[in-house]
Amino acid sequence: MDKTEYKAYREKMLTIPSKRGDLQLQAEESVEGPGFLLTSVEKLSALAQARSLWPVTMGLACCAIEMMATAAPRFDLSRFGWEVFRASPRHADVMLVSGRVSHKMAPIVRNVYDAMPEPKWVISMGACASSGGIFNNYAIVQGCDHIVPVDIYLPGCPPRPEMLINAMLELTRQIERRPVFKHREEIARAVEAAALKATPIHEMKGQLA
Fold it and tell me: Which residues belong to any copy of the NADH:ubiquinone oxidoreductase-like 20kDa subunit domain (predicted)?
């Protein structure tokens, strides 16, 4: 993408809604749904799942303090229906990986994830969980996506409670669009094809490049 194309892209970005460039949403819309009745059931099921997320208690480092603050009265996760932090992974459907993941802790994180029932989702909270952060050494896993599949990456060191709430809201939007029946395989293939056609991040150049 040269400077002219990038400038045109930026102008286009400024003229349409924030969800305009969502590859997943575009891919989902390109696949024909199963019909009115099943679609309605899917929407009802997704709405119930999105509004009753139970996170597993998983505090690994300093980001866990911000996660705890999010459940406190000032930010109040309970108003969204997410206040039930479970001590058992068998009762939870969201894993908040909050903090750096050491190689010693990695198999435990994976065991907790495997013990969670389907459907389940993962939020990588903070720079350390997402990419190793400042700990680029032999002891820290350089991103928890080497261990578990991640649905939402939350930047920051540490991220504020408001950012975690925004990440949870984004996850609920993904769950509300989640197909339940067989055509979800077609949607997954369309999303993967759209992602493969997208411009790699390392090829994206700014106006000053």
Answer: 62-170
Q: How far apart are CA 124 and CA 144, in angstroms?
A: 7
Dihedrals phi, psi of 83, to nearest 5 degrees: -75, -10
CATH of the domain at 190: 3.40.50.12280
Q: Partners of 97 in the beta sheet?
A: 124
128 is in an annotated binding site: yes
**pLDDT at residue number 21:** 55
Structural domain including 149 reads 54-197
pLDDT recorded at residue 69: 86
Low-confidence stretches of the chain (pLDDT beneath 50): 19, 209
| 125, 98 Cβ separation under 8 angstroms | yes
- Is 144 among the annotated ligand-binding positions? no
In a domain, 162, yes or no: yes
Q: Are 109 and 81 in contact (CB under 8 A)?
A: no
What are the C-alpha distances in Å from 53 to residues 36, 60, 135? 26, 20, 31
User: pTM value?
Assistant: 0.68
106 and 140 Cβ atoms separated by less than 8 Å:
no
Which pLDDT score is estimated for 209? 47
Instruction: Using the CB atoms, write b or e for 15-31: b if 16+ within 10 Å.
Output: eeeeeeeeebbebbeeb
Distance CA 190, CA 188 (A): 5
